[in-house]
């Protein structure tokens, strides 16, 4: 061995984390936030209507040059402050995605798509 087991430039290779994985992490983070009742599908657009494979209908992931932007569509439980729930979702998603992937999350957009019906 020549002491350079990692290749000429010292790297083993490229790590690619798929959109599906980041979406899954985001959903898991949001699911644990108190006040989140569930998720809603993002509105349909003309481009996704022609896509063969839609990765996740509850989360949109946009990769930048060095960052990730995430949009999630949630349903809030009745009686919870919507602003607080949204802020908690943003913090939870940013923290978990960055900790698990090492990717910089520059923005987490939360769309309140609905309010869960009060149980009678």
How does this model look, in words?
With 120 residues, this protein is of the alpha+beta class. The protein has a single domain (19-115), classed as Cation efflux protein, cytoplasmic domain (Alpha-Beta Plaits, 2-Layer Sandwich). 32% of the residues lie in helices and 26% in strands. The chain has 3 helices and 4 strands. It has helices at residues 19-31, 46-50, 82-101, and strands at residues 36-39, 59-63, 67-76, 104-115. Strands 1, 2, 3 and 4 form a 4-stranded mixed sheet that branches. A hairpin with a 3-residue loop joins strand 2 and strand 3 (67-76). Helix 1 packs across helix 3. The radius of gyration is 18 Å and the shape is elongated. Residues 1-7 have low confidence and may be disordered.
Q: Report the mean per-residue pLDDT as an integer.
A: 86
Shape: elongated
Major beta-sheet overview: 4 strands, mixed
By secondary-structure content and strand pairing, the structural class works out as alpha+beta
List key phrases describing it.
120 residues; alpha+beta; Alpha-Beta Plaits; four-stranded mixed β-sheet; 3 helices; 4 strands; elongated; disordered N terminus
Task: List the topology elements.
Layout: H1 19-31, E1 36-39, H2 46-50, E2 59-63, E3 67-76, H3 82-101, E4 104-115
Parallel strand pairs: 3-4
Antiparallel strand pairs: 1-3, 2-3
Helix pairs in contact: 1-3
């Amino acid at each position: 061995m020549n002491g350079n087991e990692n290749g000429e430039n010292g790297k083993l290779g490229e790590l690619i984390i798929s959109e599906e994985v980041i979406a899954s992490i985001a959903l898991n983070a949001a699911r644990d936030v108190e006040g989140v009742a569930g998720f809603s599908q993002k509105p349909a657009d003309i481009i996704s209507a022609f896509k063969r494979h839609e990765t996740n209908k509850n989360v949109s992931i946009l990769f930048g040059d060095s960052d990730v932007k995430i949009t999630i569509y949630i349903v809030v439980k009745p009686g919870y402050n919507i602003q607080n729930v949204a802020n908690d979702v943003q913090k939870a998603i940013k923290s978990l995605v960055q900790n698990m992937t090492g990717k910089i999350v520059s923005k987490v957009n939360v769309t309140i798509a609905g309010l869960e019906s009060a149980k009678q």
